[in-house]
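so i finally got all the pieces together for this one. its two components total, 310 residues if u count the protein bits. some of the lines might not be protein, just check the labels. i wanna see the whole assembly predicted at once instead of chain by chain like last time, that was a mess tbh
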Amino acid sequence: MAEGLPELDPVIHGKLRLAILSLLLARDEADFTWLRKKAGATDGNLSVQMVKLEEAGYVAMEKRFVGRKPQTIYRMTAKGREALAKYVDALKSLLGEAL
Amino acid sequence: MMNPESGDEASRMELVQRIRLMESMVEEGRLYTAQCGWIFVLWGIVGLVAVGWQYLQPDSRWVGMWGWPVCLLAGAVLTGIGRAFQKRESPCGGGTRSRSVEAVWGMMGVALAIYISSAMVRHLGWQYSFTAAILIMVGMAHAISAAILRWRVQGLVAGIWWAGAVATFFARSQWDVELVLLLEMGLGMALFGLYAMMMERRSCGEVNKNG
């Protein structure tokens, strides 16, 4: 491990979790079905990763009804945005000139 | 916490992949996903039917009075039903860009409704300048939407609408105006809508392929 290099947040570094946070970065909110479709994930895998992101405080979940249809909405929290910004900075430092 | 060694080529490649993944996902998130192509096709058809109706029965007072309002009302109702159905089938919170584009078109619709109904009440509709103002408003909505979405094709469509507005001022008869309207409805609405639907289908295909 090289000295002085920044560390990458393992919660964000997972491919699917990184994809989810990047998708949420561009939107105010997104529902589970849309995230699953865009990230190309299965129901089960996406649920597991969303729980991990929620536990880290990076996303907030809200359940609501559209008509009689239940809908699960996710938003990125301020903590999530901050963590993603730090992650990008760390990536830039690690890659340096390659970017 | 992780700390890949800087000299490890595999780690470097993996990090580059992460950057690319982020870029593609952020772009996906920003895409206007409202699937709106069908609305342009619908309004193109509405306009073509209204112009055609007027052409087939030019002397009918009833058509002259109500042909366009009936078609426009039918278009508004069908759009409302379609959008409600779409939102129910695919409920998904939109981003700022999606909401901006929806707001532009929604408010343009309200402005046109006020403008057309007021003119109809006063029997001042379908004069050259009246038609030109409508073409300018629709062109403006296309132009704003194109600027928000950075979509050159829609910018070109805005130009077509504005060119039609200018052409209307040089019209020699009502039929010249109708011809301009036919071209705008066919080219600037229906054909553009078909193109937008094609792009949306391609975009969905790519998402499914990547998934």
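Chain B has a mean pLDDT of 81.
DSSP finds seven helices and no strands in chain B.
anyway lmk what u think
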